Amino acid sequence: VVFPSGVPLPRLPSPALQAESAAPSDRSGFLWLERLKVRIGGGEPFAYDVVSRKAVDAVVIAPHFERDGKRHVMLVSAIRVPLFTRGEAEPTLWELPAGLVEPGEAYASAAARELFEEVGAKLPESAMLQLGPNMYPVPAMIAEIHSFFHVEIDPDALVAPPGDASALEREQRRFPIALDEALALCASGDIRDSKTELALRRLKDIFP
Amino acid sequence: VVFPSGVPLPRLPSPALQAESAAPSDRSGFLWLERLKVRIGGGEPFAYDVVSRKAVDAVVIAPHFERDGKRHVMLVSAIRVPLFTRGEAEPTLWELPAGLVEPGEAYASAAARELFEEVGAKLPESAMLQLGPNMYPVPAMIAEIHSFFHVEIDPDALVAPPGDASALEREQRRFPIALDEALALCASGDIRDSKTELALRRLKDIFP
């Protein structure tokens, strides 16, 4: 591991982890739980639940363009069923386009596919540029990686987004907005999705 | 809803969501799955899985202090079992302290408790300052909210962190680092936890 900044994080000894399945997992649904029995070194075993699914990783895409001398981004709306279950009055969030990476699919390829499905911009995989390192959004719960991309789009050459044939994506809407305005809406709490704020902040580093 | 920036996000009509349980959920473990049958308006019902647990929300704390004229933060190490299950060679991440909010517990109170457990800094709830709006880290999967705090600590007045009595926290280590160095380690991919990068970037807005 190289630390370009010159300050190394301490290398911790790799923990002597042992994990075995404590119960068979029912993989018939979209999500499933791995019920594990974990031991560290010679310690007492403890129970640990991990969420999993067929497609574990996801891409987050910041589609952007210049208009009136200002960098803009394209947001999309997303109905989030878990918010509905906690009684949120407004279970629709404004987010950057994102989606799951199918098993065997390259991250950049998933980004190009999701960009077309959700935004209606048909661009090759080679147009997808990495937007900073991959991150773990909730590493205590699922092994999911978020891979971030940015891509210049032509807002006058978009087609109607075909979606992914799901009922949720049929309801999806697009909204173009100046990058600085989108960041202000993160600061005011109107944009409430973590990956969206993180990607917008990384994009701002590129387009100050 | 007020939009201080002057640019309103479109108000989407609240989706006519109906959700009912498609199967009883086994709540005997730490995590459980709600298997839902969801309908939007008069559309066809579709299956949707939501992860839940007793303590849904979490706090993220940025403990900071000045040393040699530079703002520093205290990171902690965290063994992340899900990373181990995907075969990650290094399943230990460097993160800001964080933890679940117990049912009925105030966010600021959870932040003060977690700060003591993980960092060994005993500070009152009133010292916990909000670090930007609450966010949804993975709103397609769980209703979890992340609530962000920052707090000035005295690095010379820390006690040994008592942890939460779990085997995982017994392995936890602290590491003080300049804020700018921590941000450089996010950019280089050495810090790989989304909430940590987001909180460090928000803290940098306060301490430029």
| H/E series of chain A | EEEEEHEEHEEHEHH
Mean pLDDT of chain A: 93
Supply the number of helical segments of chain A: 5
**Proportion in β-strands of chain A:** 25-35%
Which sheet architecture does the biggest sheet of chain A show?
7 strands, mixed
Indicate the percent of residues in helices of chain A. Answer: 10-25%
- Give the largest chain-chain interface (CB within 8 Å): A-B, 91 and 90 residues
Molecular structure report:
By secondary structure, chain A is an alpha+beta fold. Chain A has 5 helices and 10 strands, in the order E-E-E-E-E-H-E-E-H-E-E-H-E-H-H. Chain A has helices at 81-85, 107-119, 167-170, 179-187, 194-206, and strands at residues 17-23, 31-40, 46-53, 58-67, 70-79, 92-95, 98-100, 129-130, 146-152, 174-178. In chain A, the strands form 2 sheets. In chain A, strands 4, 5, 6, 7, 8, 9 and 10 form a 7-stranded mixed beta sheet that branches. In chain A, strand 4 and strand 5 form a beta hairpin. In chain A, helix 4 (179-187) packs across helix 5 (194-206). The longest helix of chain A has 13 residues, at 107-119. Chain A is globular. The model of chain A is unreliable at 1-5 (pLDDT under 50).
